[in-house]
Write a structure and sequence with these properties.
473 residues; Enolase-like, domain 1; seven-stranded mixed beta sheet; five-stranded antiparallel beta sheet; single chain; FAD/NAD(P)-binding domain; alpha/beta; 33% helix; 14 helices
């Protein structure tokens, strides 16, 4: 087969967040860049993940707001759900954002975009059907795909994933979700609010990586929306039925539903990349790489989900930035040098940055301290009638910030305020200094930090000192 030969500075495989940031950064520095993408530009986030799910969640949240407006003295008729119109809203959101990730935009930057599958044939060469590319450096950013549930008979059942659920034309009568992680909880609540019956089956604990105290607030919201939650039970068998599917749990319980969504995790997409030819090791969690994202082949970097460092779009973007800094600015940057926040976009949302209390205690034991504050004591939350949730700050014994968690209205935005302090290993006393506008939810961090010092600031010794000083004023 005759292939066009190209030599370049950087060859990127995968046009998701990590690949696009790597490619655009190098191209804007005048480097010759080749970008391979056999699927849709924008990757999972734009086409199957963040964008469509948040568009769906917005529609569901609006329906819920209409349905519950009476609590604020606003009387309305119940919402009427036009599911095809909801789907059109999702499609419009994707279409509006697509130009940012489009082939045309990147070609305008000078990137050579090849819409073909690429595979390594040696340590510095990749082939596709029409091209042979030899590069100084490579970035593999092929991402992950939904994990197939290890359930007997699953291959004979028409299950959905985060990719195929957007093809469902009618609102599911009963959506059964395998997996109680962020995807399962977000989509479960959204479909419940749009009118589906929803059951979530989680083998371990709902949102197991988040702060357990704050997860309880999300759990209560899901239950209030009518979502059935089954925890600590494994699925044993899946069957196709006349009306949809049936799932039998290990306890013997049988659950019938119209649709099954598999949301039990992700596996790395390494199929056909020819990694062995390039001297690169990988497993289902991702490509093996160091904290600067370098693989065993020092010409090749891994970025985004495929790097096995976490599965977040903004983390993938950060990975692209780390690679550009290392390659073209001479800045030895590690991917772990930033405190990466994570959020679950349920209503209320749940967000965190750094360590949870449990994670901190597992490594630091009795040195860990915490400070919490509830939205029940936040005036803005009271005025809005949304007082569920609160915040928790996690510190070392000396007050060094280790992490923070928030649950409640706009928690996903609030957690950003703690990202930089956690990254810079600031002290909790630093959170007491800024003056927040009143009334805002952001005041809650200062109130939580203030509570940390109450035993000292308003303790016995402080009262004695104040009494002494008052004699001279």
């Amino acid at each position: 087969m005759s292939r066009e030969r190209i030599s370049c500075d950087l060859c990127v495989i995968g046009a998701g967040a990590a690949g696009l940031v790597s490619a655009s950064g190098a191209a804007m520095l005048g480097r010759k860049v080749v970008l391979f993408e056999k699927g849709r530009m924008g990757g999972d986030c734009l086409n199957y993940g963040c964008v469509p799910s948040k568009a769906l969640l917005t529609a569901a949240h609006t329906a819920h707001t209409v349905r519950t407006a009476g609590r604020l003295g606003v009387k309305t008729a119940g919402p009427e759900i036009d599911f095809p119109a909801v789907r059109r809203h999702i499609e419009r959101a994707i279409a509006a954002i697509h130009p940012n990730d489009s082939q045309e935009r990147f070609e305008g930057m000078g990137v050579k975009v090849i819409r073909e599958h690429a595979r390594f044939v040696d340590d510095r060469t990749v082939h596709s059907d029409g091209y042979t590319v030899r590069a100084k450096r490579f970035v593999i950013a092929t991402g992950t795909r939904a994990r197939i549930p290890p359930v007997e008979g699953i291959e004979h059942v028409p299950y959905l994933t985060n990719e195929t659920i957007w093809d469902v034309e009618a609102l599911p009568a009963h959506l059964l979700i395998l997996g109680g992680g962020p995807i399962g909880c977000e989509l479960g609540q959204a479909f419940a609010r749009l009118g589906s019956r929803v059951t979530i089956v989680e083998a371990k604990r709902l949102l197991g990586r988040m702060d357990p105290d704050h997860v309880e607030t999300v759990r209560a919201a899901l239950l209030e929306d009518g979502v059935e939650i089954v925890e600590g039970e494994f699925a044993a068998k899946a069957e196709k039925t006349a009306s949809g599917i049936a799932l039998t749990l290990e306890t013997g319980r049988r659950i019938e539903a119209s649709h099954l969504l598999a949301a039990i995790g992700r596996v790395a997409i390494t199929d056909g990349l020819g990694l062995e030819a390039a001297g690169i090791a990988a497993d289902e969690s991702g490509i093996h790489c160091d904290d600067r994202l370098r693989t065993a082949n020092r010409r090749v970097y891994a970025a985004g989900d495929i790097a096995g460092k976490g599965q977040l779009t903004h983390l993938a973007g950060w990975h692209g930035s780390v690679i550009v800094r290392n390659l073209y600015f001479g800045l030895p940057t590690k991917q772990s040098s930033a405190a990466i926040p994570a959020a679950v976009y349920t209503d209320p949302p749940l967000a965190m940055v750094g360590m949870t209390e449990d994670q901190a205690r597992s490594t630091r034991g009795e040195r860990v301290r915490t400070a919490s504050w509830s939205f029940q004591d936040n005036d803005r939350a009271i005025a809005e009638g949304r007082t569920e949730g609160g915040v928790k700050i996690v510190t070392d014994k000396d007050g060094t910030l280790l992490g923070a968690s928030a649950v409640g209205e706009r928690a996903d935005d609030l957690v950003q305020m703690l990202s930089l302090p956690v990254q810079k290993r600031a002290k909790i006393r630093d959170l007491t200094e800024p003056v927040a506008p009143y009334p805002t939810r952001g005041e809650i961090w200062k109130r939580a930090a203030g509570s940390y010092f109450e035993p000292v600031v308003f303790g016995r010794f402080a009262k004695m000192w104040a009494s002494l000083l008052s004699r001279f004023h």
